[in-house]
Specification:
The chain is mostly helical. Helices cover about 80% and strands about 0% of the residues. The protein is built from three helices and no strands. The protein is elongated, with a radius of gyration of 23 Å.
């Protein structure tokens, strides 16, 4: 799929420089950069969900119950 966008000249110059240095097509660099950025966003969302859950007393209680059940399973074996 084709995609058209505008980028600052400095960014395009760096893209061109590294594409030549690494002998990698520019679109491959952009793809890898976007995928790395999306991974960082996913991790940040995941971290935020844990922070929200940590402040939720009901979820904390459920987690404690699950932890107690897990400990019981370990000691029964």
């Amino acid at each position: 799929m084709n995609f058209t966008s505008s980028l600052p000249t400095e960014t395009l110059d760096q893209l061109d420089l590294y594409a030549r240095k690494l002998r990698i097509p520019k679109n491959r660099i952009i793809e890898k950069a976007l995928n790395a950025y999306f991974e960082r966003l996913k991790k940040a969302e995941y971290e935020l969900s844990f922070k929200k859950a940590a402040n939720d007393e009901e979820l904390f209680s459920l987690a404690e119950e699950g932890h107690d059940d897990y400990l019981k399973m370990l000691t029964e074996e």
